[in-house]
Amino acid sequence: MKRALSSTVSKPGRRTAGALEQCAILYRSNAQSRVLEEALLQASMPYRIYGGMRFFERQEIKDALSYLRLIANRNDDAAFERVVNTPTRGIGDRTLDVVRQTSRDRQLTLWQACRELLKDKVLAGRAASALQRLYGAD
């Protein structure tokens, strides 16, 4: 499907503004959108989704991608911020503030700040065990 879409939209004369405005792709379920969106993105084709969300804008997709980014790079603070409490682990704002402040003070990534706080036993109780479960995958 991806190859057929790509070859159809890349034919000469198909990329004029008028021709693109006259095109529509209909699909029955949102599960089908990913392949179509990837092909359109790869072909640098603008597109709009009506009646739903773009595949890569869905919360569960952003969460999954953030987990993968954090696995690949423990220094990715944006990914850490997104997954630290997804699913809910009971890590509150005060605990996150301590992690962030430690990160700034010691010039560490958020992941490294967690490691240091756990090692130094600065955190206790539910927050410490929740961070330990998240950090324990290292």
Automatic annotation (TrEMBL):
One Pfam family hit: UvrD_C
Gene Ontology cellular component list: cytosol; DNA helicase complex
GO biological process entries: recombinational repair
Keyword Hydrolase: yes
UniProt-listed PROSITE patterns: UVRD_HELICASE_CTER (PS51217)
InterPro entries: DNA_helicase_UvrD-like_C (IPR014017), DNA_helicase_UvrD/REP (IPR000212), P-loop_NTPase (IPR027417)
Residue ranges annotated for the UvrD-like helicase C-terminal domain, each copy included: 1-138
Molecular-function GO term, any one: DNA binding
Keywords: ATP-binding, Helicase, Hydrolase, Nucleotide-binding
PANTHER family: ATP-DEPENDENT DNA HELICASE SRS2, UVRD / RECB / PCRA DNA HELICASE FAMILY MEMBER
Protein name in the entry: DNA 3'-5' helicase II
Species of the source: Raoultella planticola
Lineage: Bacteria, Pseudomonadati, Pseudomonadota, Gammaproteobacteria, Enterobacterales
